[in-house]
């Protein structure tokens, strides 16, 4: 499985290779190793600002594993945070971003 994602401004591309997320600056062609292989990472998805990348961890060799987690990191690979740690063992197939206005549950 190959999964790639362009940053919103088109200046970076993130992709999965051998269960690791790599990020390339399109202009300089510099590739950043985000050190996500230990997490068995897949399915990178850029934040609307282009500063962060969400991804699935624990993908295993055959796609999503039995106990996936959704992580968020800066585009250089720093500040990795497990966003789903408190949800227990679940599977997450697709991830994405929604406007914060959509999260208003008071209506």
Describe the structure.
By secondary structure, this protein is mainly β. 0% of the residues lie in helices and 33% in strands. The chain has no helices and eight strands. The protein has strands spanning 4-6, 12-16, 21-25, 31-33, 42-46, 52-57, 69-74, 81-82. A four-stranded antiparallel beta sheet has the order 1-2-3-4, with no helix packed on it. 22% of the residues are buried.
From N to C, what is the helix and strand string?
Answer: EEEEEEEE
Distance between the termini: 41 Å
Strand content: 25-35%
DSSP helix fraction: under 10%
Shape call: globular
Taking pLDDT < 50 over at least 5 consecutive residues as the criterion, the unreliable ranges are none
Total strands: 8
Read across the widest sheet, the strand sequence of neighbours is 1-2-3-4
Largest sheet: 4 strands, antiparallel
Average pLDDT figure: 81
Given the helix and strand composition, which structural class is it? mainly beta
Helix tally equals: 0
Radius of gyration: 14 Å
């Amino acid at each position: 499985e190959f999964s790639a994602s362009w940053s919103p401004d088109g200046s970076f591309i993130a992709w999965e290779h051998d269960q690791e997320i790599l990020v390339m600056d399109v202009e300089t062609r510099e590739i950043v190793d985000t050190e996500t292989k230990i997490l068995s990472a897949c399915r990178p998805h850029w934040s609307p600002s282009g500063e962060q990348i969400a991804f699935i961890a624990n993908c295993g060799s055959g796609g999503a594993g039995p106990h996936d987690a959704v992580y968020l990191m800066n585009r250089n690979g720093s500040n990795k945070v497990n966003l789903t740690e408190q949800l227990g063992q679940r599977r997450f197939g697709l991830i994405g971003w929604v406007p914060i206005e959509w999260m208003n549950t008071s209506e």
